[in-house]
């Protein structure tokens, strides 16, 4: 449980950890993390981190995918306003074709999706 015993108007424990702190963590290196990584980074319970990440997902600031029975990965959405600005717009990663996580890709097109169209 939190060391902070003050509650907000809805009866929830108040936290000094803000949404922008969590979003900044996604900008510090790689743009995807698990709830356990967020919990470890900020010294909170994994369940608390999961709830905070879920709220950010509800707000449209993060997306998630389940990778197994207990593994969920969270990442920036395409329209997240707090995404890192230092990325070069001519970076080939951002000129790659876009596809949805659930969209099937033909085996013949896998290299094009991963590496871009191969000229040669």
Can you give a write-up of this model?
30% of the residues lie in helices and 11% in strands. The chain has a 3-stranded antiparallel β-sheet with strand order 1-3-2. It has a single domain (19-77, 86-115), classed as Winged helix-like DNA-binding domain superfamily/Winged helix DNA-binding domain (Arc Repressor Mutant, subunit A). By secondary structure, the protein is of the alpha+beta class. The termini are far apart.
Topology record:
Elements: H1 19-27, E1 32-34, H2 35-42, H3 46-58, E2 62-66, E3 72-76, H4 110-115
Antiparallel strand pairs: 1-3, 2-3
What is the overall silhouette? elongated
State the strand order across the main sheet: 1-3-2
Mean pLDDT: 74
N→C terminal distance: 59 Å
Concise structural overview:
One of its GO terms (molecular function) is DNA binding. Mean pLDDT is 74; it is low at 1-5.
List the defining traits of the structure above.
120 residues; three-stranded antiparallel sheet; 3 strands; 30% helix; 11% strand; elongated; disordered N terminus; Tscrpt_reg_IclR_N; ArsR-like_HTH; DNA binding
């Amino acid at each position: 449980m939190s060391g902070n015993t003050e509650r907000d108007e809805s009866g929830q424990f108040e936290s000094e950890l803000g949404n922008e702190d969590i979003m900044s963590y996604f900008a510090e290196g790689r743009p995807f993390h698990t709830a356990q990584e967020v919990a470890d980074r900020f010294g909170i319970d994994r369940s608390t981190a999961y709830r905070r990440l879920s709220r950010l997902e509800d707000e449209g600031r993060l997306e998630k995918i389940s990778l197994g029975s207990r593994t969920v990965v969270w990442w920036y959405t395409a329209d997240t306003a707090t995404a890192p600005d230092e990325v070069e717009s001519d970076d080939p990663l951002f000129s790659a074709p876009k596809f949805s996580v659930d969209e099937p890709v033909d085996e013949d097109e896998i290299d094009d999706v991963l590496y871009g169209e191969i000229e040669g």
